[in-house]
Automatic annotation (TrEMBL):
InterPro entries: DUF2921_N, MOT1/MOT2. It comes from the Eukaryota. It comes from Nyssa sinensis. It holds the Pfam family DUF2921_N. Residues 507-722, 741-924 form the DUF2921 domain. Keywords: Membrane, Transmembrane, Transmembrane helix. The chain crosses the membrane at residues 51-78, 112-132, 138-160, 181-202, 234-254, 361-380, 386-404, 416-443, 463-480. This is DUF2921 domain-containing protein. GO terms for molecular function: molybdate ion transmembrane transporter activity.
Amino acid sequence: MEDESPNVTTPLLRRQWWHRRLSNLPLTTSLRLKTTVWSELGGSVGDLGTYIPIVLALTLVSHLDLGTTLIFTALYNITTGLLFGTPMPVQPMKSIAAVAVSEVPHLTVPQIAAGGISTASVALLLGVTGLMSSLYRFIPLPVVRGVQLSQGLSFAFSAIKYVRYNQDFASGKSGTPRSWLGLDGLIVAIVSILFLVLSTGAGDSFDDNHSHSSEEPSSPSNRSGRRVRRRLQILSAIPSALIVFLLGLLLCFLRDPSIIKDLQFGPSKIHLVKITWEDWKIGFLRAAIPQIPLTILNSVIAVCKLSADLFPDREVSATAVSVSVGAMNLVGCWFGAMPVCHGAGGLAGQYRFGGRSGASVVFLGIGKLVLGLVFGNSFVRILGQFPIGILGVLLLFAGIELAMASRDMNTKEESFVMLVSAAVSLTGSSAALGFGCGILLFLLLKLRQMESSGNCKIMGVPLLVRHLLVLAFLLLFFIASTTSFSEFEDSDEPTSTCKYERSAEVERECSFVLSLASKSKLGDEKIYEIESKLPFWNGDWVQEAGGAPLMPFDDSDMPKNFSGVGSHLKLVSFWVMGFGFSHQFDNAVSVCGLLSIGITRNKTLSDMAESWTPWFDTGPGYSNMYIPFEGLYVESDENGGERLMCLLGTSVFPFSEGLSDTLELLNDYSCEQDHQSTLPKDDRIMLVLRYPQTFTLTSRAVLGEMRSLNERSDPKYFDKVHISSQLGHGSTYSFVSNLLVSKACDPYPYQDELIDDGIQIFKGFQFCKVFQRFTSDIFDVSWISKCHGTKCNSDLRPFMLGREIEETDGILDNFRLVMKDLHCVPGVNLNDFSTAKVAVVFRAFSPLEDHYTSQARSGLSGMTISAEGIWNSSSGQLCMVGCVGLEAGSSECNSRICLYLPVTFTITQRSILIGTISSIKKTDP
C-alpha cells in the first residue's frame, strides 16, 4: 500500500464553477472590503469638503441643475468604484467653476458644458493615444510632489477661511468673522476637529497583526501595549467623518426648519443642452484653456502618483484615468451636469477617513442617486443651510493628507525642486506655472550635477541651451510672482476692504437713524443671514430740480437735429462689502458698501468695480459714478418692520469750475486712474436706505435718499436724489395678500370672456415649471386708450407714464411688456385640483428701450405692476391683483390680471400666453 502524501488535501466539496469565476472578476474584487463597512462609509464623505461648496456655487450663480448633477455624479461614482477598485473621487472641475462663478459676465450652462466637453476631449485624446502614459512616466517625481503639496496647502488655507469667516459661495467671497456661538459657530467647528483628531489621529491605521514584543504574553508592559492598540483600533473604526457630516445635515434643519416646506419630491427633468457656436467659443477660451493643465496635472498625473502611494497593490494607469475623465464629461455635460474630474484632494480625503476600496465611492454614489431622484434641484435648499465650518473641517483634513504625500523626498535636491514648484503654484494660483518652473529647475540641477561629475554627455549640450533654460525658468517665476501674488495675498484677509475710519462722524450724522433702532441685539449670525438681502442692481433714481445736478451727461452720441430726449436711463446699484462687528453698538452694526449710480443710453450699469476707491467714468451716452460708503445698519419696528442703513460716502467731484466747455470737462474725467486720483474729493455725502423686513405684494420696495451735507453755496453741493428698487431673490416671498387677491378674483374664476369656446387651455400638472419658461419673454400688448394728437386722457392706464410718452410722441402701439421676478408655489386644494400661488412683476417699456435692459431693471416706477394671485387646474385661469408703482397702500392695488396658457393653435389663435389687465374699479376709464 503506497504512502499518502501529507501535503495533499482532498476537499470534501468542490466549489461551483460560477463561484470561482465570479471571485476573479474585477468588479467583485473592487467591492471587496479591506476594512469594515463603517470605515468605508466614513471614507465616502471625505471629499465633500470640496464637492459641496463648488456645486452649491454653480447652482446659485450659474443656475446649474443640482438634481441632474447629483444623478450623473452618482453614476460616475458607482462606475469608477467598480472599475478602479479604489476610492477614486469624482470632483468638480475647479478652474471652470472658478471662472463661471467669479468672472463677469458669469458663464451660462451651455458655456460651462462647452468648457467641460472641450477639456474632456483633450483628456480622452491624450488617453487613447498613450500620450498621457508617456507624460506620467517621464515627469520627475519631485515636480508632481510639488503640485500635490501646493494643492494640499491650498485646500488647507481655504478650509481655515471656511472655519474663520462666513462664506458667500454665490459671490466667491469671505464675509464677516464667524461667531463663537451658534449652529455654525467656531465652537461647532473646533469640537468637530477635536473629535476627528481623537478618533483618527494623524491618519495611521492600526492592525491586529502588529508584531508583538519579545516579552512574555503575561508581561505587564505587553498587556498594556495590547490594551492601547485595542483602544486605538476601536477609535479608528468609528466612522468619524460620517458622524460629522450627519451632524451637519441635522444642523441644516435646526438652522432653518422652513426648508422642509420648500423641498419638492421627484427628480429634475433631464434634457439636452443646446450649445451654440458662441457658447463653444466662450467655453473653450474662458473655461477649457485654464482647466486643461489642471486636469492633466492634478486630475490624472497627481491622482495616479497618489494612488500608487496609497494602494501599491492596485496601481491605476494614467491612460485609464484620462479616458475616465473624458468619458464622464462627454456623456454628462450634454445634459447640463457639472463638469467633473478625478482629484488628488478628494482621493486623499476619502483615504484619510477610512476609504480603502471601491465600495467607498459606490456608497457615496448610491447616496447621491437617492437624493437626486427624490429631491431633485430642491435639495439646494438643504445644502444652502449646511454649516460651512463643518465643510471647512472636512476640507482641512483632506488637504493635510494630500500635502503629506510629499514627505518621501529623501534628498535636498528633490526637496528643493518640490518646494519651488509648490511655492510658484501657490503664489501664481496656477499648477501649470508651478509645473513649468519645477521641470526647468529639475533640468538645470541635473545639468549642473552632470557637469560637476565630469560626465562627458554634458559637452553635447550647447551653452545656449542651458542659458535658455535659465531664462525660461526666470520668466515663469517672474510671471507667477507678479501677476497673481497680490491676489493670493488679498484672499487671505477678506475683511480688509472696509476700514471704518469715520465711526465718530457716522454716529453723529446718523443719530436720527439710531433713534429708530429697536432694542433687540444684532448678532453676527443674524447679520450673515440678511447680508444677501441688501444688495440691489439697476434700480431707478430721480433728482429734485434745484439747479445742482449730481453729474454731467454727454449726449454727443445723438444726432444734433434730434428733438426727443432719447432713451437715457438713470440707474443705481448697491453692494454690501462687509460688516464691522468690532465697532458695533448693542442694536446696530457697522457696515460698508459700494454705490454705482449713473446715466446710460439704453444699457445697464457696469458690474461692481474691483477697486475700493471713488471713481467717475463718462463718455458719449453714459456717465457712471462709484461711491464707497461706510455707516450703520439697524432694524426698526416702524412701518411694519424695516431694515435701515445710514452711510457716509466719498466721491470724485464730477465738475470742474475751470472748464467751461462740457465736452472738455467730460474728456478730462475720462482719463486714466492716475489722473482720477488727483481730482477733488467730496466726502460730505449721506445715503439712507430702507428695506422692508417682510417680502410681500405691497411690502417689497427698497427706498433710498442720497443728499449732500455741504452748504448750498458750496460747488460740491447737489440736489437730493431719490432711489427706488425692490427686494431680490435673496429674500423669501410671503403670500399673505389673500384679501387683496379676493378683491380681484372672488368669485374664482373671474369671467372675462377672453377664451373662445374652441380653444383649450393648460390645466395640467407642474404649472410653475411651465409658467417659469415665460419669464423674461416679451409680450405684445393691445392698448385701449383715448388719445387726441399727442395728449392722452389715460396715461396708458394702469401704467403711469411721464417722460416715456413724450419720447414716443404719444404713439402707444409699440409699448410692450416683460414679465420678471417670478415666485410660484404649487399645491393641491381640497378637491384634489392642482393649484399654485403666483407672484410676478410686469414692466412696460417703450420701443426706444432695449428689452434686455428693461428686464434687468429693478425699480418700481409707474411702469411696473406687482401682482399676486392664484391658479387652479379646474379652470386653467391665473387670476391676480396688481399694484402699480411704489405706492405701499392697498388702495392702489386696483388692477386685475387674468392669464391663460392656450394649448390649441389655429389660424387665428397663435399665442402661447394670452390675458387681460383691467381695472377693479368700475369707475376707472
